[in-house]
Design a protein that fits this description.
Structural class: alpha/beta
Number of helices: 13
CATH topology of the largest domain: 2-enoyl-CoA Hydratase, Chain A, domain 1
Distance between the termini: 63 Å
Helix content: 40-55%
Largest sheet: 7 strands, mixed
Strand order of the largest sheet: 3-4-5-6-7-8-9
CATH class of the largest domain: Alpha Beta
Number of strands: 9
Strand content: 5-15%
CATH architecture of the largest domain: Alpha-Beta Complex
Bound molecules: zinc ion
Length: 353
């Protein structure tokens, strides 16, 4: 922020102050190992560092391309809500912040609803775009989650939520907080219809989002290294007056402590999801999960060398797929076991009382 940005209207300001979002050149530095990454190689590797395996943030568009059969899906129009119901203003007007975010991301809101097929099975996605006001959950986002759930019930499809969010949208105050119970009710509709509700926890999933629909999935899958938590680390440390472990609030830590069922690498995500949906809906996948070559476009010259290893990779993938399926099955069994335990516990308590 400099003296100039105080005098220019938001639409133009977005060009002046958001230039850091545009990479200076075709190379990018990995946040974890500081290795240099060429933009095309990085895109071909689903935005995963090819030196150390660090998962960089992935746009919703690339993620959906990577996951749906043939990268094809239908974007569903978001429901309309009242913008800026509180006429909120901090340093900037909320309406101006919305305009800026829309210009920057070319999106209407912080979520995208997409409907399509995975392994030939119907799936509805509701995915967060973190670049849009930190993926914060306001009325529009809550409404979108409700709509996605309704479509899933109507299509008899699995609902997959992909949160990437800083939490509630403070500019909408109480209305933003009301989206927490609303989103819970929405995903309960899907569960009542006996359809799978899966959450892919990505970096970062925090605040009101982690305290609502993101933590009530039938299955929680997390991307490696994602930051997942409610309050920030410093706040917790100051409250409990203890030093927290280094890996606190990471996907791996939560897996160890039972908040997450699986930590799955991006390249294995599609296969894992297809296996899970197939097991949970008791329907066989009609399209091989390996069929999707990942994000489309800009890789025609790169795809040739990959094909030479195709056979070796295929057999390896086959083995991996069966391991994945076993892991998925185990996760499902664990969950049903937990449900039984809880039921048993409830019955025992009832008997005791
Ligand atoms: Zn790296």
């Amino acid at each position: 922020m400099n003296w100039l940005s105080n005098f220019i209207p938001p639409r133009i300001r977005s060009f002046v102050s958001e230039q850091k979002e545009v990479p200076d050149n075709l190379w990018q530095k990995c946040n974890a190992c500081e290795g240099m990454l060429f933009h095309r190689d990085l895109a071909n590797n689903h935005n995963v560092c090819y030196h150390c395996g660090h998962h960089l943030r992935l746009s919703v568009k690339s993620r959906l391309n990577m996951l749906f059969d043939g990268g094809e899906y239908e974007s569903v129009e978001l429901p309309k809500v009242a913008h800026d119901p509180l006429k909120f203003k901090d340093r900037k007007k909320y309406v101006d912040r919305i305009k800026e975010a829309q210009t920057k991301t070319n999106l209407k809101e912080a979520v995208t609803i997409a409907r399509g097929k995975m392994g030939g099975l119907p799936v509805v996605f509701v995915a967060f775009n973190f670049r849009y006001m930190g993926g914060s959950m306001g009325a529009a986002v809550g409404e979108a989650i409700v709509k996605a759930a309704e479509i899933a019930v109507k299509d008899k499809a699995a609902l997959i939520a992909v949160p990437a969010s800083g939490g509630a949208r403070m500019q909408e105050g109480m209305i933003s907080l009301m989206q927490m119970p609303r989103s819970i009710i929405a995903v309960e509709m899907v569960k009542d219809a006996k359809l799978p509700y899966i959450v892919i926890l990505t970096d970062p999933t925090t605040g009101g989002v982690s305290a609502s629909f993101a933590m009530v999935g039938d299955i929680h899958i997390a991307e490696p290294g994602s930051m997942i938590g409610f309050a920030g680390r410093r706040v917790i440390e100051e409250t409990v007056r203890e030093t927290l472990p280094d890996d606190f609030q990471t996907a791996e830590y939560l897996l160890e402590h039972g908040m997450v069922d699986m930590v799955v690498e991006r390249k294995e995500m599609r296969k894992t999801l297809v296996n899970l949906i197939s097991i949970m809906t008791q329907q066989p996948a009609t399209i091989d999960p390996d069929d999707n070559g990942g994000p489309k476009g800009g890789k025609s010259s790169e795809s040739a060398p990959a094909n030479t290893n195709a056979k070796a990779e295929a057999s390896e993938n086959g083995q991996k797929a069966s391991t994945q399926a076993k892991a998925a099955l185990k996760a499902v069994q664990n969950i049903s076991q937990n449900v039984e335990d809880v039921k048993g516990h409830g019955a025992a308590q009832a008997a005791g009382a």
